[in-house]
Structure formats: structure tokens, C-alpha cells
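Help needed: design a sequence for this.
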């Protein structure tokens, strides 16, 4: 009921905004042009899927209903598939305006041609102009919103210049419950991946996507995972298979399937499409272009439509932004306002990256993209660690839900870890594979060690990942502290740390003073041919300047991390220091981790 109320609120807000235009809508502190809010609304499909699959604890009929939402959507890129009484008299190009009437009769409905249609065709696909105006797709009937759909039998006007005063009218009919469809669905993100995940320059897969294809052996690995879960069967991957049919003998087998579906759509399908949109943005980057349309789409996929505009913390979302905030509470990586540190860094980078693209600074924008790619792994790693700790150490969550959740997070990380270390990837897979040994519980020490060995390679830090946190004891659980046994500071350690900081400040002032004295002794003579400063011995004087402290702190990327996330279009580019030049204070202040 709560989810349904949120959906209604979003749709009501959109209807009050009218058709898409140049206006902007804030999502998590990012000014998203309303023309791309349709992408953010894919989270409404995700919410509907999660609700549907959970109705009766993963019963077969609910799995089928969830698969229908997955395949046919309901909220993003809604269009009507109209059947014309007479064939088209001429070609109709994509984007032409269409006018008709809604099912309420007296109200007008508008849209545009969804795809190019040729003369003689007897069908016409019309994209609805107003977001959320017609919501049908594969949603359960109780979630249909059809008052603003085209009337089932009526006339439409096509605004193409011709001898008939610039318009052509056609009589049509259609089934409003079957023919109101969606051009963007959770399934399409994976089903169409072979075509969509290729560079426009060389038609090769984007580098990160190629890593997944090489590991799983198919470009539709996400779709295969979700369908295998829904159908209760084994996946057919080259490596990294999970047997969801074998797990069906568990008492809560339906729960395992529903968890694999709910997590798979976001972790496998949506996650990779965020990277795809950023790659497209970089491929389209031109000096003076002043557009960052694909970059905006990446943010829409990452955040969704349900989040608080202010970017304090996730409220009701279901996409990766919400997932990062969920785990920060479990791993003690939240900021003072309750949101996650990783989300603040990612949103800072999204905002800075957009500015770089608009300015045509493509090289630095590419560096921002690579850092976002690395940071987006943080909630995936946290998810693996959390579920394994629950099963092996805590012992309270040994059912199929926790096992399927852990396996889903592992599925999203295995190709990347395999790129760093095939042996560590094998360890994690053997510990978390689902269905082959129903009585086996994963080993917390083995999984943790295998992951931590690859943090530097992946470009993440121990502080990003955090540790298993006890809110009752206000401390990390023993043996589950961040990397290497780091504990929360006691009064004594905090006292000693304060003196260490003061000592470092005194030392810094002393060093600065000595440097200044040495600098005054250097005889600065202008080189006749180079214009450089030289000392009295002819040696080059190199002066270094450190930036003022900023809230956006990003460690240098490892060379291996560059091998994983570097673009296939510029594999030799050194981006390790690009982000250091972004500059500027964080829009959200200098919050400290709680």
C-alpha cells in the first residue's frame, strides 16, 4: 500500500508538470532535465516487480506476474500500438506530433510518432507526451491508470505538412489493456544489450561490459539470471552458474527465487546501463557541444524517481542509490545526515562530471566516469560481506533468502574480481554459489579475505566498505571490523589521536617555515632560452602547490583498476590524477562519517 501511494504521488506530480520540456527536476541533489525523468520512472517498475513477486512468498503465479512486469514494464516510455482502418498515405517520421482523445472522451491526448512508419502500413506506434499519463504495460490490473490513454476507437491527427492544411487524420482502434505498451523495461536493458552496449566508434563492446560477457559467455547474462530464477532452473553461463532448481527443495524455495529476481534486475541490468549511458556521454563529448543528455540518463538510472530531491538520504527508492544508503547503516559508513558516504561521492562526481562535459573537458569527464564505476561497486561488496556474515557468524539468517541475496551480489561482482584475480573469484563463487550444496554455509573468513585482497585493484578502500556494525554496542562486531581489525576509537585512542594531529600540525608548520627560508636563499635567475627559474648552480627549482582541503576526497586509481574500468576507446589514457583537478566544494557540505 505504501508503494502504491508513492507511485500515485509521483504520477500526480508529473501530471501537474505537463509535457516534458526544458524544465528540471531535482533528484538526490542533481538537476535532471524533465525530458529524462521518464527513465527515472523505471524504478516504479522495479517497485511493482518487488511487490508482485512478494505477494504470496514467491508462489508460482506471483513469479509469473513479476516476470510480466519485468518483460513489459508499465511506467517508462509508454506508447500506444494503434491499428489503422486505412493504410498510411505517406511515410511518417519519428517525433511527429499526434493528437487524439482520451478514454474520458472530452479530454485531448497528445503524443509523438515512436518510430518511423512507411507508407502503406496499417499500424502506428504513438509515444505518450505526458509522463505517467497512461500506465498499463505488464502491470497487474489494479495498478493500471488509463484515464489519459487514447480512446479505444477514435481518430488521430498526424501533423505532417501536406496539401491537407498540414495534418492527416486516421481512424484507428486498439485494445487499451493489451496495446498500451512500454519501450523501456527492466528486461530490455539486458535483452537489447548486444546492440546497445557497443561503442559508436568501433562497434566493440564497452570495456566493463566486455568483462562481463567474457566471464559469463553471453551479453544477456542479466536476463538469463532473472529468467532462471523465475523458472526455477540452472543458469547456462560459461562460468559462475547458479542452480535455482536445486535450491527448490528448501522450505522457503519461493523466497530464494523472488530474492534472486528482485536483486538481479538492479544489480545486473540497471547497474550496467548506468555505465552504458556514461560511455555514450563520453562518446558524444565535444568542445562547445554544451550537452550532457546521456550523462543525465545515467543519473536517472542510478537514483530513480522516488528519492528525496535534496539528497540527504534515501527515503523510498529501490535503485542503486537506495541500496548504497541501506548498507551504510549496516556497515557504519553513513554520514551525519544518514545518507551514505559513497552516495555523496558519486553524486558529487555526477554533478562535476556534467559540468566537465558541458565545458567540453572530455578527458577529465572520463576520469569522473571511471571513478563512479569504481564507487558503484561499494554497495555490491558490502552486500556480499553482510549476507555472508549473517549466515556464517551471526547464524540467524541461514535460509534461502539470505543465500539468494548473497549469490545475487556475487553475480554482480564475480566478473570484476575475476579480472583482478581468477583464484579469488573462484573462492568467492565456491562459497556463494546457490543450489549445488544445500547444507553448505559460506565461510566468512574466506570470503572476506578474498575480497579484501582485491580492493586496491578494484579501486575501493577499507573505509568505503566499513565493517559489520552493532548499533546496540555502538561498535563493530568482533572480527568484522573494517580491513585488518580496525575498531571504533575509545576515549584513550581518541585522546592520543588528538595529540598526534597536533604534533603533525606543529611539524607541518616547522617544515613550511624551513622551506620558506631555503627559498629566500635561492638566487632566481631567468633562463635565457627556457624562461624557467634556476638556482645559482644551474639546477631547476621545482615549486609544488597543494590544493586547499576539499570535502570531495578521491584516492588515486590503481593501474589495474584502470585496466578494468578504462574505456575501450582510450585504453592508454592515464586518468589517475584527472579527478584531483575537479575542484570546488561539495554541494552537500563536509559531513563526517557517524
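Sure. Designed sequence:
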Amino acid at each position: 500500500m505504501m508503494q502504491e501511494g508513492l507511485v500515485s504521488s509521483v504520477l500526480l506530480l508529473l501530471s501537474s508538470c505537463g509535457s516534458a520540456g526544458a524544465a528540471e527536476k531535482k533528484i538526490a541533489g542533481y538537476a535532471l532535465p524533465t525530458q529524462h525523468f521518464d527513465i527515472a520512472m523505471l524504478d516504479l517498475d522495479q517497485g511493482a516487480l518487488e511487490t508482485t513477486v512478494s505477494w504470496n512468498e514467491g508462489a508460482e503465479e506471483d513469479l509469473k506476474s513479476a516476470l510480466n512486469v519485468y518483460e513489459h514494464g508499465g511506467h517508462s516510455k509508454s506508447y500506444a500500438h494503434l491499428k489503422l482502418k486505412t493504410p498510411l498515405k505517406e511515410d511518417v517520421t519519428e517525433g511527429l506530433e499526434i493528437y487524439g482523445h482520451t478514454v474520458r472522451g472530452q479530454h485531448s491526448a497528445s503524443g509523438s510518432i515512436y518510430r518511423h512508419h512507411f507508407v502503406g502500413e496499417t499500424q502506428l506506434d504513438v509515444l505518450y507526451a505526458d509522463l505517467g499519463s497512461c500506465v498499463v504495460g505488464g502491470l497487474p490490473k489494479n495498478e493500471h491508470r488509463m484515464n489519459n490513454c487514447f480512446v479505444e476507437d477514435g481518430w488521430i491527427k498526424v501533423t505532417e505538412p501536406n496539401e491537407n492544411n498540414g495534418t492527416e487524420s486516421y481512424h484507428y482502434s486498439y485494445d487499451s489493456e493489451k496495446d498500451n505498451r512500454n519501450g523501456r523495461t527492466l528486461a530490455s536493458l539486458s535483452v537489447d544489450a548486444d546492440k546497445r552496449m557497443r561503442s559508436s566508434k568501433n562497434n566493440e563492446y564497452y570495456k566493463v561490459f566486455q568483462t562481463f560477457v567474457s566471464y559469463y559467455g553471453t551479453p544477456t547474462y542479466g536476463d538469463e539470471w532473472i529468467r532462471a530464477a523465475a523458472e526455477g532452473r540452472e543458469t547456462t553461463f560459461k562460468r559462475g552458474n547458479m542452480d535455482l532448481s536445486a535450491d527448490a527443495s528448501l522450505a522457503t524455495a519461493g523466497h530464494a527465487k523472488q530474492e534472486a529476481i528482485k536483486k538481479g534486475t538492479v544489480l545486473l541490468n540497471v547497474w550496467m546501463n548506468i555505465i552504458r549511458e556514461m560511455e555514450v556521454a563520453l562518446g558524444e563529448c565535444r568542445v562547445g557541444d554544451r550537452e550532457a543528455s546521456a550523462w543525465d540518463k545515467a543519473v536517472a538510472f542510478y537514483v530513480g524517481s522516488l528519492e528525496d530531491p535534496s539528497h540527504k538520504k534515501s527515503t523510498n527508492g529501490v535503485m542503486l542509490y537506495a541500496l548504497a544508503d541501506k548498507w551504510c547503516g549496516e556497515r557504519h559508513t553513513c554520514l551525519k545526515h544518514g545518507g551514505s558516504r559513497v552516495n555523496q561521492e558519486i553524486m558529487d562526481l555526477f554533478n562535476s562530471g556534467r559540468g566537465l562535459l558541458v565545458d567540453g573537458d572530455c578527458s577529465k569527464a572520463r576520469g569522473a566516469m571511471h571513478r563512479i564505476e569504481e564507487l558503484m561497486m561499494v554497495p555490491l561488496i558490502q552486500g556480499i560481506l553482510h549476507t555472508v556474515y549473517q549466515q556464517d557468524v551471526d547464524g540467524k539468517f541461514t535460509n534461502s533468502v539470505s543465500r539468494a541475496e548473497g549469490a545475487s551480489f556475487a553475480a554482480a561482482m564475480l566478473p570484476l574480481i575475476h579480472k583482478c584475480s581468477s583464484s579469488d573469484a573462484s573462492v568467492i563463487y565456491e562459497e556463494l554459489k546457490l543450489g549445488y550444496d544445500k547444507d553448505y554455509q559460506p565461510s566468512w573468513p574466506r570470503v572476506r579475505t578474498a575480497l579484501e585482497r582485491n580492493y586496491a585493484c578494484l579501486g575501493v578502500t577499507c573505509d568505503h566498505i566499513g565493517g559489520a556494525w552493532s548499533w546496540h554496542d555502538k561498535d563493530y562486531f568482533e572480527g568484522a571490523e573494517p580491513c585488518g581489525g580496525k575498531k571504533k576509537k575509545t576515549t584513550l585512542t581518541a585522546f592520543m589521536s588528538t595529540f598526534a594531529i597536533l604534533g603533525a600540525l606543529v611539524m607541518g608548520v616547522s617544515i613550511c617555515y624551513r622551506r620558506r627560508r631555503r627559498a629566500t636563499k635561492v638566487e632566481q635567475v631567468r633562463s635565457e632560452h627556457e624562461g624557467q627559474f634556476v638556482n645559482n648552480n644551474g639546477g631547476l627549482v621545482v615549486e609544488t602547490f597543494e590544493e586547499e582541503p576539499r570535502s570531495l576526497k578521491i584516492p588515486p586509481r590503481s593501474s589495474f583498476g584502470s585496466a578494468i574500468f578504462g574505456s575501450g576507446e582510450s585504453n592508454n589514457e592515464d586518468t589517475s590524477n584527472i579527478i584531483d583537478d575537479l575542484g570546488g566544494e561539495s554541494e552537500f557540505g563536509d559531513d563526517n562519517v557517524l
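Residues 10-21, 487-501, 511-560, 567-593 have pLDDT under 50 and may be disordered.
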